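Let us practice reading a record.
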Amino acid sequence: MRQPKSKTRSPRPLRHPGLASPPSVDCSVTCPTDAEAPPLSHAPLAGEAPFLAWNALSRAERIRELRRRIATVAARERPQARGRAPAWTLGAAACDALLGEAGLAIGGVHELKPALSWAADAEEDEAGAARTRRRDLQGVRAGDRAAAVVFALALARRRLGEQAMRSGPPRVLWCSPRRDSGEIGRLYAPGLAAFGLAPEWLMQIDTRHDGETLWALEEGLRSGGLLLTVAFVDDVALTPARRLALAAEQHRTPCLLLTGARAPPAAATVTRWRIGRAASAPHAFDADAPGASRLAVALERCRGQPLAAERSFILDWSDEAFCFSVAAGLADRTDAPGRTSADRLGAGSGARRGGVRLAG
């Protein structure tokens, strides 16, 4: 029996409906060679030289060039983020020089600590000369804690600038636990006005414990409608401190964190300050009357400026110009060799004010 011949059929081409013949698709891919420059842009950016020949650059140079051009384009797409707020400074040239041209970081956390008080007793050496020896720490005096609050208010006034005395919605969040309000009192509206701050600019929140304070502080930072946040807490753990730093950086809102004097330094802070009381300036007309208020301020940490740490100053606050200035004519210079920040801050606790020795 004859077997039927097997017919080999060629595959039928797929036809697109409505077309007489299948469409031809060009699937060729052209890969640029090293001799061709990458198509970053058809023309160089304004004020820049034409793009260098791609084959003349090494791999590291190509990466640097790409990063430079990406940063240039990103900066031009965010013109408001760069010039949205002026530099936040103290007003004292000697202090502002330590912070750099940008001053205090707008998108960061700044820690404020009261000065620690040292107990001292006198002893006599073999020669019979009396000398002073430091004993254990006694704690924090109310005057040093009040000095830290005054420093925070001064920074708030500097942050608000010219709009501090104008009426408007609250732009400063002030968080404090109820126990502190009962111990050292609340903010006094007439005193704020004399300090250069309109009371309606501040929104004060009393919390039951530090957990509520940190929650309210983070929510204020993430709101995006505040110019400054201030909070009083005893101690801040690593995770909450990191969350505050990320929220402040993301929403470009600074945070002042007033922590305990003996508490360990908070993590992820841009600066850390130690503030204590100092003898007031001499009165211009009465030697027995107190003059302008002064603060003993020490900069213990400054991120990006390691040489600025452990510098201390005696600062005058001006009620007219609303700025700090370094006290002039001090016998005990802050830059004396061999003196630490604790020594300089402790020197003001026993200073004289208008001929009257302050109680230590």
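A brief commentary: DSSP finds nine helices and 13 strands in the chain.
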